Amino acid sequence: MKRLGILGGGESGVGTAILGKQKGYDVFVSDKGKIKEKYIKVLEHFEIDWEEGQHTEANILNADVVMKSPGIPDKVSLVKKLVEAGIPVVSEIEFASKYTDAIIIGITGSNGKTTTTMLADHILRQGGYDVGMAGNIGDSYAKMVAENDFRYYVLEISSFQLDGIVDFRPHIAILTNITPDHLDRYEYKFENYIASKFRIAMNQNENDFFIYDADDKVITKWLKNNPIKSTLIPFSIEKELGTGAYLKNDKIQLTIQNNTITMQTDTLALEGKHNLKNTMAASAAAKLVGIRKETIRQCIENFQGAPHRLEKVLKIHHAQYINDSKATNVNATYYALDSMSTPTVWIVGGVDKGNDYKVLMPLVREKVKAIICLGEDNSKIKDAFGNVVDLLVETYAMTEAVKVAYKIAERGDTVLLSPACASFDLFENYEDRGNQFKEAIKNL
């Protein structure tokens, strides 16, 4: 019996354990931290061996293959020992894909991948397709493969998950954009991170498709120097294209295989330039799998966006509160500030992943009337913007931040939570941060 070792007892680890057990592996799940009660119940139900609070090396180094959760870096000593021993260390995406013949739409990028994934899934569903949405979002992909027989998968895939692929090959790959992010995991070399993102196309052939942002200089330069085999489908809001999606007279023109759809942009459910691009990418993927024009048009008009991503919460005394907790890097916050059309009280801060705030300077000068710092260490934010805004306040809890915002915000203002940082100093994750924001607003 083959042995499957799993590092990490979260959503992807437990999902992989279920699939591994179903496929006849002897499975062992090991988590250095605590495993949540709900996951322990699942492991017990499937009679899967597990441990928490430690990694017993002997029980892992005897595996035939190891699935590593995306949060565990390659440089931890146990992973290095596995590699030295010649034991394959793969991601959930790699492991699960071996057990499905479904058509896969794989979506990666520094920003916009969740929205693009949700929109692509929404269009396929409305088109009557049998589709599962997984990866970095929602349920475990491996668990879905174990329990369903979907014809299509729309997968949101992080660079960490791509680092653990060998044969994974999406029929349609989408790369939304590339900006410096997670550089602490890539030896602070941007090119390592770019190469990681492009792994999504490494096994594609000429029958597959690669949808990408043709306005993104990092992507276009990399493609020029590192050509890929799949058919290129670019999208742009800056230039006209023969194939792909572009803007013309404020309408989206989508041309694929000499077939053109024209879509109004003034009726789009999602606001902001970045969402025009997300819409183009998802629509192109939908067209490639044969969804009808009318369905695509309707779906991009009635789509409800991702929670914690520019989510309108409430208006209080004519000031709009917006939850953009999912903005965990500077680029995501750039998009958020760029789409603000009223004076903004900006709540920012958290665990800084080597952020360079300079790119935000013009937007802050133009749109931000006050900054509320929310984090254990706000020194970089204070250094960057202390002389730019009239008012900068430091806070250390969400309730406090929201109360301060409430005092500052006047009629017609926007209070924007867009942290540009990870959430782990004060919160469990960005969802917890966003939910606390919403809760605090309701309690005002």
TrEMBL record:
Q: Does the keyword Cell membrane apply?
A: no
GO terms under biological process: cell division; cell wall organization; peptidoglycan biosynthetic process; regulation of cell shape
Q: Name one GO cellular component term.
A: cytoplasm
Reaction catalyzed: UDP-N-acetyl-alpha-D-muramoyl-L-alanine + D-glutamate + ATP = UDP-N-acetyl-alpha-D-muramoyl-L-alanyl-D-glutamate + ADP + phosphate + H(+)
Q: Where does the record place it?
A: Cytoplasm
Every Mur ligase C-terminal domain range: 308-421
Coiled-coil parts of chain: none
Q: What is this protein called?
A: UDP-N-acetylmuramoylalanine--D-glutamate ligase
Q: State the organism of origin.
A: Costertonia aggregata
